[in-house]
UniProtKB/TrEMBL annotation, chain A:
Gene name as annotated: sugB_5
Protein location: Cell membrane
Keywords: Cell membrane, Membrane, Transmembrane, Transmembrane helix, Transport
Gene Ontology CC, one term: plasma membrane
This protein's name: Trehalose transport system permease protein SugB
Membrane topology according to the record: Multi-pass membrane protein
Transmembrane segments: 12-32, 77-98, 110-136, 142-161, 189-210, 245-263
Gene Ontology biological process: transmembrane transport
PANTHER family xref list: INNER MEMBRANE ABC TRANSPORTER PERMEASE PROTEIN YCJP, MALTOSE TRANSPORT SYSTEM PERMEASE-RELATED
Coiled coil: none
Protein family (similarity comment): Belongs to the binding-protein-dependent transport system permease family.
From TrEMBL, chain B:
Domain of life, source organism: Bacteria
PROSITE patterns reported for this sequence: ABC_TM1
Listed transmembrane segments: 12-35, 74-95, 107-130, 167-186, 207-225, 268-289
Gene responsible for this protein: lacF_5
InterPro entries (UniProt xref): MetI-like, MetI-like_sf
Natural source organism: Jannaschia rubra
Name by which UniProt lists this protein: Lactose transport system permease protein LacF
Pfam families, per the entry: BPD_transp_1 (PF00528)
Automatic annotation (TrEMBL), chain C:
Entry's localization field: Periplasm
Entry-linked InterPro entries: Bact_solute-bd_prot1, SBP
Pfam families in UniProt: SBP_bac_8
UniProt xrefs under CDD domains: PBP2_TMBP_like
Presence of the UniProt keyword Transport in the record: yes
Name this polypeptide is given: Putative ABC transporter-binding protein
Length: 277, 293, 449
């Protein structure tokens, strides 16, 4: 974009101050989380808080090698990736149908899909528990993968429907004239054009699933325990191992942050995909 | 936009799997919840399970605790959301101004951090940073001469704290959406407007706002839904306390169903919440977001 | 195992690490033989993240080695442990051992989720250790933690009594030569004298969870002669005595740090450990945290006494966990589970458990020579367990629900959002509604707490 207007020092300085303030505001909690994770218990609980101290990796050693946080992170990863893939596989064709086909009850159906995103997990958690127990799948990753579809599928459908609708219909018509079926049009013409929406909704699905807590604590115990559920388990009112809690938190947050930063371009572009055409 | 009529088979081929799966994971448990909501259904007393018609609903609808939690949830929504939108808009406008490209790129990346942070971790972080004694926030307030504040132990402060973290986590989200909206304003229109007036407000009102509306609607829909669902951050920060100060609706339902084990009442609460959610989504989606298929 | 325990125990462990594994008494019973048919069985159990469980984890490999039974542990925070187990039992899940806080026992027993010890004895006569010696448990503890309606279900495993931990240096400086004997003295003398210069006399953990109802609310009503229920199971909270206790708590808050309603155990213990308050009333098991230089700054100043007495006498807080066999386990699992419970709570292992940071409920271990020197909390603990109120908190199935009510209004009361009288009234009304719904008032259920 071309620089417009005056960019004198007078107008630049406040901008620099403001931008730096915003940046610090966003980043400072992370700084504090990471430094606390490098403190011993006595340092973490000292008053006033210490900014300069001898860092230790003891908390990380403990949570990784004694408490098995690593294993829960692998669980989180498997669950988040699988549910995202599944949401895309199921959601894209559905979104295509909603965007391209005429059928009765279409807008109600679309509304129902989207509403699932709005439902509080607390509404479904216990019924899920009893049902899942009944079919014997408690404490398995499969259950989380399926249940996370309740919020991932709507996101995929929402964003992709809008994207498909923004693709000129002429392309389809030309293909139909050439004798292509709907599946071919979907696969070879529309889907490639809708990749931005697929990417964005995948990123969202992954982040939501990685961060999910409530279903994870209700439906898993040992084998399928996810990382956020693990972090909660240190919250015993009995002692407050701040260092360990923050070490676990750092381990949970870092991968998703790296992922989000790498994907931030798509993320920003896609945030408004539904809204801005 | 044209759509085509297709055979039932093709239609189902595209949309059937999604419907089936979502019905299995979304509707089946819901039916079960409705079933339990019509029963005396206490996990610690299942022997006395009994069909009691709408007694649980009668209880919920006349229960002060339920409406108080509902009220708190809406107070949170109407306080946090305007702050998020206002701050988000300011940040977006700032980032939209030309110049300082490098700093602005860094800031944009920084904005992604809060959004991606695990919600439960935000609450844990809040416990550490806002502790009355060893919290860094009170230390920093001390530097500018403010006496330590009891953030977590005082009902009003705890509520403010929840708002603070909600704002911290979701203002960047608003900023990024609105920024994307601003970039869709055609350059020549914006430049022409700036030649005519120096007032940024006029430009915002008359030129940029129309381009921001869709983003604002998306923000409102998502933030409303997420506020009604808000659980993780508060659960790890205050567990709804002190007293009832931060007991939002999802925490109340969790407490009723998972700690008092009264699944009948909890299901009724959940169904009422669901009804409210659906009505709100209807209003938002059908009125604001008219372009649904 | 965490480091602070290790250092605290280094002295004593060395003497006793020799596992009493190959124990075989005159009767010819041996663990290895009794366990033989059940080798290879896996026993699922819920543990908490507390010192007693860390201690048990250190000991378990020896048990597994000797019996071939595998112990599969799920660690949970206390606040989730009840919910997790209830859901598991309702759904006929795979837990084989129930971990029972004393307030859960009525709940578990009434729902037939746990097996009475007599039924185990009858079904598996060969696995009962002849040296089990139930009489060796403190009677109050066995009765409160392990029994319901006269039937023994569980054996006391992780045991607590409320104790007064105090900073003797602070007390001396203020001119006291000993800890407060009565709550009255706390209010009239110790409170005013010790609350100054940003320090406070006392911290009463009152966070809105079980801590509020057990540590804060119940702790104050009993010494003043109050109780939750009267003989007809009607609320006794609006009685003169109960209100006296609750008003006392309210008034005492002037000598407690700001934001006391956000204090859980960790905060209260840390306040004493950092020298910010002069005394706290806490569970015996916090001794290791308070004595360890890695987590406590008060060092030699730490001293321990029984809780102060009220007009109605000394009624220290009582809490703790027993282990019982879960009904849903299959036969092999039941037998294996019992062998484990019996072993971990046995007389023989009591000393090792104590050395590793646990608190056994075996009388015999506390009679050993020199035990009070190694474990300064022992005299106060033994005294507290001589007499007490098993129904300190009612132990019936409805307690968790009632506890939620107490937690809500109890904290609102402390915050001044409602008056003490109003709060007691509301808790009473809601408590009676819960009991009514459960059928206590129409004769459906015996009045046991």
């Amino acid at each position: 974009m071309a620089a417009t207007g005056s960019t004198s020092a007078r107008s630049i300085l406040p901008q620099i101050v403001l931008l730096t303030a915003i940046l610090l505001f966003c980043v400072f909690p992370f700084y504090w989380m990471v430094t606390t994770s490098l403190k011993t218990q006595l340092v973490a609980l000292s008053q006033p808080p210490q900014w300069i101290f001898t860092p230790t990796l003891g908390n990380y050693a403990e949570v990784l090698f004694e408490d098995g946080v690593g294993r829960t992170m692998v669980n989180s990863l498997i669950v988040a990736v699988s549910t995202t893939v599944l949401a895309v596989l199921l959601g894209c064709p559905a979104a295509y149908a909603l965007a391209r086909f005429e059928f009765r009850g279409k807008s109600d159906l679309w509304f129902w899909f989207i509403t699932n995103r709005m439902v509080s997990p607390i509404v479904l958690a216990l019924p899920f528990f009893l049902i899942v127990r009944w079919i014997g799948l408690l404490d398995t990753k499969l259950v989380l993968i399926l249940i996370y579809l309740t919020f991932n599928l709507p996101i995929v459908i929402w964003l992709c429907t809008d994207q498909f609708r923004s693709i000129p219909y002429d392309l389809d018509e030309a293909a139909i004239l050439e004798g292509a079926g709907h599946w071919r049009i979907f696969r070879s013409i529309c889907l490639p054009l809708a990749m931005p929406a697929v990417a964005v909704s995948s990123i969202f699905s992954f982040i939501f699933s990685w961060n999910e807590l409530l279903y994870a604590i209700v439906l898993t115990r040992n084998d399928a325990k996810t990382a956020p559920a693990m972090a909660i388990s240190y919250m015993e009112g009995y002692s407050l191992p701040y260092g360990k809690i923050m070490a676990t938190s750092t381990l949970i947050v870092i991968p998703v942050l790296i992922f989000a930063l790498i994907a931030s371009k798509q993320l920003v572009r896609g945030l408004t995909m539904g809204a801005v055409k | 936009m044209a759509g085509s009529a297709v055979s039932r088979r093709t239609l189902w081929g595209f949309i059937g799997p999604a419907i089936l799966v979502l019905a299995a994971v979304g509707i089946v448990p819901l039916v079960y919840a409705v079933y339990t909501s019509l029963h005396y259904f206490n996990l610690t007393n299942l022997k006395d399970q009994e069909f009691i018609w709408f007694a649980n609903y009668a209880h919920v609808l006349t229960d002060d605790t339920f409406w108080a939690a509902m009220g708190r949830t809406f107070i949170l929504l109407v306080t946090a959301l305007p702050i998020q939108i206002a701050l988000g808009l300011m940040i977006a406008l700032l980032l939209h101004r030309p110049g300082l490209t490098f700093l602005k790129t860094i800031t944009r990346l920084g904005l992604v951090l809060p959004m991606a942070t695990t919600y439960a971790v935000v609450g844990l972080l809040g416990q550490v940073m806002f502790n009355i004694k060893y919290g860094v926030v009170n230390q920093m307030l001390g530097w500018v001469g403010i006496a330590p504040i009891d953030w977590i132990g005082d009902p009003d402060n705890a509520f403010v704290l929840v708002i603070f973290w909600d704002v911290w986590q979701w203002t960047p989200f608003c900023a990024l959406i609105l920024l994307a909206g601003l970039t869709t304003v055609p350059d020549e229109i914006e430049e022409a407007a700036r030649l005519e007036t120096k007032s940024w407000w006029t430009v915002l009102r008359h030129i940029q706002l129309p381009y921001l509306v869709p983003g604002l609607v998306a923000i409102m829909i998502l933030r409303t839904a997420d506020t009604l669902k808000l659980f993780d951050m508060v659960f790890t920060l205050t567990r709804g306390g002190p007293g009832n100060a931060t007991e939002f609706i999802s925490l109340l339902i969790q407490r009723t169903g998972f700690r008092s084990f009264d699944q009948g009442v909890a299901s009724a609460q959940a169904v009422v919440l669901l009804a409210i959610t659906v009505v709100l989504s209807q209003i938002y989606i059908r009125i604001f977001y008219r372009e649904g298929p | 195992m965490n480091i602070r325990l290790k250092s605290a125990l280094a002295l004593t462990t060395a003497l006793t690490v020799v596992s009493p594994a190959v124990a075989q008494d005159q009767s010819g019973w041996s663990l290895a033989e009794a366990a033989e048919p059940y080798a290879g069985t896996t026993v699922d159990v819920v543990f908490l993240l507390r010192p007693g469980y860390e201690a048990a984890k250190e000991m378990i490999p020896a048990f597994e080695e000797e019996t071939g039974i595998e112990i599969n542990i799920t660690d949970l925070p206390y606040e989730n442990a009840l919910g997790e187990q209830v859901r598991d039992f309702v759904a006929q899940g795979d837990l084989d051992v129930a971990l029972i806080d004393l307030v859960w026992i009525g709940n578990f027993a009434q729902n037939d989720w746990i097996v009475p010890m007599a039924a185990i004895e009858e079904q598996f006569p060969d696995i009962i250790d002849p040296d089990l010696d139930l009489d060796d448990f403190f009677p109050l503890v066995l009765d409160a933690f392990g029994s319901w309606d006269g039937t023994v279900y569980g054996l006391p495993f992780d045991n607590y009594s409320g104790l007064l931990f105090y900073n003797s240096c602070m007390l001396e400086e203020a001119g006291f030569d000993g800890p407060p004997e009565t709550w009255e003295a706390v209010m009239d003398d110790y409170g005013p004298a010790l609350t100054k210069d940003g320090k406070y006399a006392y911290a009463l953990q009152s966070k809105r969870n079980e801590t509020q109802s057990a540590d804060s609310f119940a702790r104050m009503i009993w010494p003043f002669g109050g109780s939750f229920l009267d003989a007809e199971f009607r609320s006794n909270l609006s009685s003169e005595e109960s209100l006296a206790g609750l008003n006392f708590r309210q008034e005492l808050m002037q000598y407690m740090p700001e934001g006391i309603v956000a204090y859980d155990h960790a905060e209260a213990v840390n306040a004493l450990a950092q020298g910010d308050v002069a005394f706290i009333t806490e569970w015996s098991s916090f001794y290791s945290t308070l004595a360890d230089p890695d987590t406590s700054r008060i060092g030699e100043c730490l001293a321990i006494a029984p809780e102060p007495a009220g007009p109605a006498g000394r009624k220290p807080a009582l809490g703790g966990f027993s282990l019982a066999v879960a009904e849903q386990a299959d036969d092999d699992e039941k037998a294996a589970a019992w062998l484990f419970i019996q072993w971990i709570t046995s007389k023989e292992n009591a000393r090792q458990y104590l050395d590793l940071g646990g608190v056994p409920a075996r009388q015999s271990v506390y009679e050993e020579e020199g035990i009070a020197e190694s474990f300064p909390f022992v005299p106060a603990l033994v005294e507290s367990w001589q007499e007490g109120v098993p129904e300190f908190r009612p132990r019936f199935a409805e307690w968790p629900e009632i506890s939620e009510v107490v937690q809500q209004y109890g904290t609102q009361m402390m915050l001044g959002e409602i008056t003490v009288e109003e709060g007691a009234e509301r808790i009473g009304t809601e408590m009676e509604a819960i009991l009514d719904k459960a059928g206590y008032y129409d004769g459906d259920k015996p009045l046991i707490q």
